[in-house]
Structures are given as C-alpha cells and as structure tokens.
Amino acid sequence: MRAKITYFVLAAVLVVYFVLVGDRGVLLIQQGTPVTIAYGAAVLVLPLIGGWFLWQTTQFARNADRLARELDAEGGLPVDELVRTPSGRIDRDSADAVFAKRRAETEASPEDWRSWFRLAIAYHDARDTARARKAMQRAIALHDGKPVRAGNAP
User: Fold this and answer.
1) Which segments of the chain does DSSP mark as H helices, in order?
2) Cβ distance 105 to 115 under 8 Å?
3) Model-level pTM greater than 0.85?
4) Among 26, 45, 52, 56, which is 20 to 30 Å from 105 by CA?
5) Which tens digit of pLDDT belongs to each residue from 6-17?
6) In terms of Cα–Cα distance, which of 58, 41, 46 is closest to 4?
7) What is the dihedral sign for C-alpha 58, 62, 63, 67?
8) Maximum Cα–Cα distance for the chain, whole Å?
9) Cα separation, 23 vs 17, whole angstroms
10) What gap in Å lies between CA 73 and CA 71, rounded to an integer?
11) Are residues 136 and 120 in contact, defined by beta-carbon separation less than 8 angstroms?
C-alpha cells in the first residue's frame, strides 16, 4: 500500500510539472519570434513524452496488479522462500536458487502466464529489473491473449 501511495504522489507531482512546463512552452510560443516559437515547441515536446511514459508505466503497473490479484485468488502466488540478511536484504545465492526453479517451471510451460509472472518476481528478487519487466510484459500478453514473439526465452 505504501508503494502505491508513493507512486500516486510522484505521478501527481509529475503531472503538475508537465503542466508548468507546458505553460512555459505556450508562453514562449506566444512571444511570436522565430526563436521563441521553436524553443516553445521544443519545450512542449517534453511534457508529451513524459505524459506518454507515465501513462505506459501506470498501465503496466495496473495490469501487473490485476494478474497478481487473479493469481492470489487462485492461490498461485509464489511463497517467499528467500533467505534474508539481518538488514532484510535478499541473499543473492537464495535468489539465484529460486530463480533457477522458476526458470525451469517457465521452460516447462512457456505458454502459461502464471509461470512467467512468477519468473518476473524471481528476476526482481535477483535484482534484474530489465528482465523482470520483460517477463511481466510477457505474462500480461499471454494472459490477455495478445501475440507474443517466439524468441523471448526465460
């Protein structure tokens, strides 16, 4: 719950920032000189890109949360079996062992979104955020019946 609150606060701050930057871009364009018009147009591109990125990230988080709720209702969420250091950090060897198990499960059933979801969690626990995101994107696509490229092995 704390992570969701933080996400929404940061998203709101970004939206305010986008509005302020967009306003400055419009003011620059209203100046009417070629330089300020060009600069104002360039400034207006930043909130558009930022807004698109924020929208994509929010959709990804909502879809991942939807899958987590469904998997939880089925009783299929992975059990936290990771060893932690006294400070609470995940032990790397423990994360690697769980990852190997999740990868084998995914290789055994590559069309099952549930195994890809659990693999994404294992990637995250092993601190491989890029692969965690790709595995979760694949889980979402498989769940929603969208086409998935064949070359993405676990």
Assistant:
1) 2-31, 34-74, 92-108, 113-125, 129-144
2) yes
3) no
4) 56
5) 999 999 999 999
6) 58
7) positive
8) 63
9) 10
10) 5
11) yes
